Structures are given as structure tokens and as C-alpha cells.
Amino acid sequence: TKSSAREIVLRGADGGRVEGSTQPIRFERSLSLDEARSSEALLAYAMNGEPLPIQHGYPLRLIVPGWYAVTSVKWLSDIEVVDEPFEGFFQTEKYVYEWERDGAIVREPVRLQQVRSIITEPAAGQDVAVGDLVVRGVAWSGAAPIAGVEVSVGGGIWQPAQLTGERHRHTWRWWELHTRIDEPGPTTVRARATDLAGRRQPDQPEWNRLGYGGNAIHTVPIRLR
């Protein structure tokens, strides 16, 4: 690449009209050169030993591990290296965080996935027998591997869950907690994750106008009987 190169623009074959435009536009996103290198981005043409299905972007799709999928351009048709910041619609208007700070509107493209954990067992609204309780779930983060998951039952103290499987940069971590509840009635189970970059899942994420990146602590109501 030339010394003046700054970003890589990736363009999909899909397009259409958007609000404020008179001509159809293509779906486009960009990565800086540093982001392209550090994210371990790749071009995928197959999945599970088979050609990439059309709905997943055949014949070629960008995959950016750890980033929200809006960056992983499907039906990739063009790659262009540019020497100035890319300001396409889907980079600066659509898939962006938008905040008001100090009286000014601040926008930032949606990129890295927020740290997050969800509970997969028990299910919301499930009737659970009083006594031993197993809580299971999965956690992930775009910034770094998961360092730990904590679980709170009935508003009680946060208890560390056991992580299962091996730690890798771009993989989910399954987790489980064995605990006990002896009082019948309705209650809640909550889970929060922390990654090795020090990011912790919040009670409520910072509000943004378009609602992207939601990663509030997952809360599941259950009934003990």
C-alpha cells in the first residue's frame, strides 16, 4: 500500500435508496489499516466445508472477529484503499452510536462488540424446584477474552460462576453456577461479565439515540415452588 493509505473500503453488491438520497447507494463499510491488521479480519468463501450460503454472503464475505456483524459486509464485490476517512452513509449515519455531549452531537461507528453475558438456563418465567439450582449461560466480548462471570440470585451477593472450555480471543465462554435456594416464590437471576480489558457489563448501558450496543445486565425472572 502507498504511504498515504488510511482506510480500506469494502463494498457489497447489495444497494438501494436511503432517506435523503436520490440515487441508490451500495452497502459500504471501512476499516483503518491498523484495524484490518489487529482485528484479524478475513474474507470468507466457505462455511463448515461448504460454499458460503447466499443468505450469508456468497460468494465472498468480510468477517471481522469481535465486531458487530454490520461491519462484516456480505456479497463483497469491491475493495478499495483510500487516503482519507471514509464517510459513507452506513459508516457515519446509519450504524453509529450517537450521543449528545456538551451540547454537541457526537457520532462513532458501531465496531467492537460490548462485553456481555446472557443466561440460557433457567428460562425466563420457568418454574424451578426449591433446593439446588444450576444457572448456565454464555459470555463474550469484542475487546478481550472473558475474565469472569458473576451471578446474583434474588438480589443477593454476586457469586463467581465457573467458566468452561478454553480461553481464546474470539470465542464465547460458557459458564455455570451451582447454588441453592430454599425459599419458594418469585425471584430473579442476574448475570454480568467482565473481560480481560477491564470492561464490565453495566446495569444500564450509556444511552444512544439509535439504540446500538445494548449490553445491560441480563435478568431472568423465575418462580420457585
Topology:
Blueprint: E1 7-16, E2 25-32, H1 33-38, E3 42-44, E4 46-47, E5 50-51, E6 61-63, E7 76-82, H2 89-92, E8 96-101, E9 104-109, E10 116-121, E11 127-128, E12 131-140, E13 146-153, E14 159-160, E15 162-164, E16 173-181, E17 185-195, E18 218-224
Parallel strand pairs: 11-18
Antiparallel strand pairs: 1-2, 1-7, 3-6, 4-5, 8-9, 10-12, 12-16, 13-14, 13-17, 15-16, 17-18
Radius of gyration (Å): 21 Å
Order of helices and strands: EEHEEEEEHEEEEEEEEEEE
- Adjacency order of strands in the biggest sheet: 11-18-17-13-14
Mean pLDDT: 94
Structural class: mainly beta
Main β sheet profile: 5 strands, mixed
DSSP helical segment count = 2
The unreliable regions are none
- Tally the beta strands: 18
Shape: elongated
Instruction: Supply the CATH class of the largest domain.
Output: Mainly Beta
What proportion of the residues is helical, as a percent range? under 10%
Mind telling me which CATH architecture of the largest domain this is? Sandwich
CATH T-level topology of the largest domain: Immunoglobulin-like
Measured between the Cα atoms of the first and last residue, the distance is 65 Å
Tell me what portion of residues adopts beta-strand conformation: over 45%
Supply the number of structural domains. 2
Structure description:
With 225 residues, the protein is mostly beta strands. Helix content is 4%, strand content 47%. It has two helices and 18 strands. The strands form six sheets. The protein has a five-stranded mixed β-sheet, with no helix packed on it. Strand 8 and strand 9 form a beta hairpin. The longest helix is centred in the first third of the chain and has 6 residues, at 33-38. The termini are far apart.
